[in-house]
Amino acid sequence: MADAPRILIVTSRYYAHIAAELEAGVLEALDAAGAEHEFLEVPGAFELPGAIAMAAGMEEYDGYIALGCVIRGETSHYDLICNEVARGLMDLSLHGIPVG
């Protein structure tokens, strides 16, 4: 029998109540798949790609899940953060780091 995959869940805690719901859904899916998991918290969505990049350098995990929420306000902050986080996560995946 193969070892269970080890997944690191990296969660932005800026909106803690939303983060908790996102984690609950992920845990349900990972438990159903028989995957092992650990958590890492970051302050905001902007830190998600960097935290995953650093963790990937340690080569302890088979994959990564990024969880975060950005709420649109009256400024361009939403667009800037969403674009940069999406770009950062895509860059990781293009370098062979499995990110969901």
Keywords:
single chain, 100 residues, 3-stranded parallel sheet, 3 helices
From the alpha-carbon coordinates, what is the Rg to the nearest angstrom?
14 Å
Low-confidence stretches: none
Structural class: alpha/beta
Whole-number mean pLDDT: 95
Number of strands: 3
- Numbering strands along the chain, what is their spatial order in the largest sheet? 2-1-3
Percent helix, as a range, is: 40-55%
Anisotropy-based shape: globular
Give the DSSP E fraction (strand runs of 2 or more residues).
15-25%
What distance lies between the first and last C-alpha atoms, to the nearest angstrom?
A: 25 Å
Series of secondary-structure elements, N-terminal to C-terminal:
EHEHEH
Major beta-sheet overview: 3 strands, parallel
Number of helices: 3
Structural summary, described in words:
The chain is globular, with a radius of gyration of 14 Å. With 100 residues, it is of the alpha/beta class. Strand 1, helix 1 and strand 2 (36-42) form a beta-alpha-beta unit. It has a 3-stranded parallel beta sheet with strand order 2-1-3, with helices on both faces. The model has no long low-confidence stretch (mean pLDDT 95). It has helices at 16-33, 48-58, 77-94; strands spanning 6-12, 36-42, 63-67.
Tell me briefly what this model is.
By secondary structure, the chain is an alpha/beta fold. It has helices at 16-33, 48-58, 77-94, and strands spanning 6-12, 36-42, 63-67. Strands 2-1-3 form a three-stranded parallel beta sheet, sandwiched between helices.
